[in-house]
Amino acid sequence: MKKLALSLCAMTVMTISGCASFADMAGADSATLNAQSAQSFAKMTQEARAKNQLDSSSSTYQRINTVFNRLKPYADQMNQTGQRFQWQLAVLKSDTVNAYVAPGGKVVFYTGIVNKLNLTNDEIAAVMGHEMTHALEEHAKSKIGAQALTNLAIGIGKSYAGSSIGDLGSAAIDLGSQVGIGLPYSRNLESRADYGGLMLMAKAGYNPNAAISLWEKMNRLDGAGGGSFLSTHPSNTQRIGDMRKNLPAALAVYNQRR
Q: From residue 211, how far is each of 42, 83, 138, 241, 256 by CA, in Å?
């Protein structure tokens, strides 16, 4: 079992450093993912429009769209994927407090995140910058590679151990691969998006202090800071602490524009 543990540790290191390349080898290259994302986004918006769930005229939409258009040029400057993004925004009429992005720059906002949290434009920019960074750093592609590597590590580990591992040992490998590879990796991507979003909003002239007030509002909505163990996202409290550490660098960028 010690050799097995060492094998899984080695796989973990490889996951962090090479998952995007592994995704390419698995057929999930950037151009393919972006094209698939564009098709899915078009279908989603068409269905939302048919159900009268696509917002394209409210004051909430106008505010989100204004932030989106202001951040786009700076996001394009940061794009090192080798693929030109066709940025698109869909705002959905829903009380859901959420936003997400798909490969190639397809951003989806729910009106609930703005209306329920009473977000300022700067706070909208914090959310938008976070999502744009996910796309710019191709985190969806990285997760595909990470999952493929995780599955490979599990298969190798169970094969190496053989029938003597038993049900409990098998479950331990599954949990170990999740905690050792999957979940911390996802949390790392969220932390990277927080940092990248902070810098992106600052470059576009939005006050990065708003990223902290955004997550303070999230904290109040959630009712507690929450724990990051067995969660794909850092706790709100952890996010706020990390942002405070990165705030001076973001403020330096922001103040250069004033």
A: 30, 28, 22, 11, 18
Residue 4 lies in a domain: no
- Residues contacting residue 253 through CB under 8 Å, at least 6 positions apart: 199, 202, 203, 208
With respect to residue 165, please indicate whether it lies within any of the assigned structural domains: no
Residue 3 within a domain: no
The two tokens of residue 249 are: 């660098």
What single-letter amino acid sits at 11?
Answer: M
Structure token digits, residue 223: 């009712």
Catalytic option among 131, 137, 138, 190: 131
Question: pTM of the predicted model, to two decimals?
Answer: 0.74
Q: How confident is the model at residue 31 (pLDDT cuts 50, 70, 90)?
A: confident
Distance from the Cα of residue 180 to its chain's centroid: 19
Give helix 183-203 / helix 236-256 axis angle, nearest 10°.
Answer: 30
Task: Give residue-wise pLDDT tens across range 52-96.
Answer: 999 999 999 999 999 999 999 999 999 998 999 999 999 999 998
Q: Please state, in angstroms and rounded to a whole number, the distance separating the CA atoms of residues 123 and 114.
A: 9
**Is 125 inside any structural domain?**
yes
Give catalytic status of residue 131 as yes or no.
yes
